[in-house]
Amino acid sequence: MTPETGDLPRVPPVLRAAAWALVAVAVLLPVVLLGVHQRVLAGALDVRYFASYEYDAQGNETRTVSPDVDFWDRWSVLSGAAPADRALLAAAAACVVLAGLHLTTGVRWPLPRACRWAGAGAAALSALSAAAVVVVDLVAVQLPEGEGAYFPSSSSFLDVAPVLAAMATALVFSAVAGVVLLGPALPPAAAAEQDPGPAAEPLAEPAAEPLSEPDVEPAAEPPAAEPLPGSAAGSPARTPAGSGEVPPFPRPSAEDYAHYRRPQP
């Protein structure tokens, strides 16, 4: 990520084009191979490989396909008509190169996510196709002589051993490439070396001790207020204003009470 904007850096056009070209190769080869297999197994080459030729009196050629052609006969044709080992090995190689680009350049120039997911899908398609070929060939080896999918030889396993080895290689490399493309740009070990780990929390500073108050002599209490004129000697003094205390209600003395009770002239 760029420190100025925080966005991912742009992939160079050459690297982007190379990555998408590898994706196209990895996707097209298995798709074309599966299409060819489907056509051959449906009987597209029966006339070429399993037809009998007859000529009439005028010399016209007539081709008749044997009705006994089955799946295994057509599968034997695929070994020469559609070399699955080369196609899937090439697709696996393209996925491996794409995974290498992801690991080596992903830190500086991360590949587009769509490119990586398409490459992972192509790797999965290659792996599944290789696994299917391996299963069918292993079943063909177990068939009795004369019913197999290959011409008789000294050993039926020798007929499929090269194909099995190629398919196993394509299966392993495609699976590894797919996992790498879905993972981080760096291997786990390299990422662990570069990652310093969570930052240590700063130590809490000790709380400062409260400053001791200087020794101050208590202020002398103000003298009691003198009683106002006209109040009794024993009446409490009024509280000065601003002290915040509510003064008690003054009670008149008996003489004052008698004075105020006298009728006024």
TrEMBL record:
The chain crosses the membrane at residues 17-36, 87-105, 117-140, 160-182. Residues 190-265 are annotated as: Disordered. Keywords: Membrane, Transmembrane, Transmembrane helix. Residues 190-211, 227-237 have a biased composition (Low complexity). This is Uncharacterized protein.
